[in-house]
From TrEMBL:
Belongs to the 4-toluene sulfonate uptake permease (TSUP) (TC 2.A.102) family. It is a multi-pass membrane protein. The chain crosses the membrane at residues 7-35, 55-75, 87-106, 112-129, 145-163, 169-198, 210-228, 240-258. This is Probable membrane transporter protein. Keywords: Cell membrane, Membrane, Transmembrane, Transmembrane helix. It is found in: Cell membrane; Membrane. PANTHER family: MEMBRANE TRANSPORTER PROTEIN MJ0441-RELATED (PTHR43701), MEMBRANE TRANSPORTER PROTEIN YJNA-RELATED (PTHR43701:SF2). GO terms for cellular component: plasma membrane. It comes from the Bacteria. It comes from Lentibacillus salicampi. Signal peptide: none annotated. Pfam families: TauE.
Length: 262
């Protein structure tokens, strides 16, 4: 019996570590891996009967907090985070999230998931387009404040409306619209996700969606994975990191399209 529980705890740590490593690496958080993995365990293993969809989302957000916190610390020490743009994204994404949550009652999420999934895949191919080489320093000197606020407001609204799209939209927006390097965009995205996930996780805690007996093991994996992902990010070439980001966007897109059809 004890061995069975130890195996479950070990699986929780591994899932948390893998999801957080991948999420921190490209600045998208880890939900794109953690949620499908946990849904799979819930459907095919009685040992994970406690992992209802509501609990999975709640644990995913708790994990995201520690993923973002550990990776943000690592990115901050290496001076990768663009604080100004990160704060501007927060000023727009927070009210946008509230607006999106309110609009949720008027729009069909199934139809949107299908279209949004296609959009994610299209966005992945935008990385094939040759772009002018711009530096993070140039952005620092001339940050398009109003543009950042409007874009982040839209991203926040979409995220609040359908419960998806955070990092998957933040990173490409920072790269294509504001000229950040893929390394800085990933780091700044995790900084933004930290505060958004804290707010969202607080709601799920209040609703009782967290099974703390297991959540702690996801957190252990998230802390290690988030730190490792941030460090590996700094060692990788931009071209390779962009290919990994493209792959992650395709995975997100396929998952959303499947949800739309289901």
């Amino acid at each position: 019996m004890m061995k069975g529980f130890l195996l479950i705890y070990f699986i929780c740590v591994i899932i948390g570590l893998a999801a957080s490593f991948a999420g921190s690496l490209v600045g998208m958080g880890g939900g794109v891996i953690l949620i499908p993995a946990m849904l799979l365990m819930y459907q095919y293993s009685d040992a994970f009967a406690w992992a209802t969809p509501q609990v999975i989302v709640g644990i995913s957000l708790i994990t995201m907090v520690f993923t973002a916190f550990s990776s943000t610390l690592a990115f901050y020490r290496s001076k990768r985070i663009h604080i100004k743009i990160g704060l501007l994204f927060l000023t727009g994404s927070i009210p946008g999230g509230i607006l999106g949550s309110w609009l949720n009652q008027f729009i069909s999420s199934e139809d949107f998931s299908l279209y949004f999934g296609v959009l994610m895949i299209v966005m992945s191919f935008l990385f094939l387009v040759k772009r002018d080489k711009r530096t993070d320093d140039n952005v620092s000197r001339k940050t398009p404040v109003l543009s950042v606020f409007i874009i982040s407001l839209i991203i926040g609204a979409i995220s609040g409306l359908f419960g998806t799209g955070g990092g998957a939209m933040i990173v490409p927006a920072m790269i294509f619209l504001f000229g950040l390097s893929v390394h800085t965009a990933a780091a700044t995205s995790m900084f933004v996700i930290l505060f958004i996930s804290i707010m969202s996780a607080g709601t799920h805690i209040a609703l009782g969606h967290i099974v703390w007996e297991y959540a702690g093991f996801f957190v252990i994996g998230a802390w290690v994975g988030g730190t490792l992902g941030a460090k590996v990010n700094q060692l990788m070439k931009s071209s390779l990191l962009e290919w990994i980001l493209r792959l992650m966007l395709v995975i997100v897109g396929i998952r959303l399209i499947i949800e739309g059809f289901m």
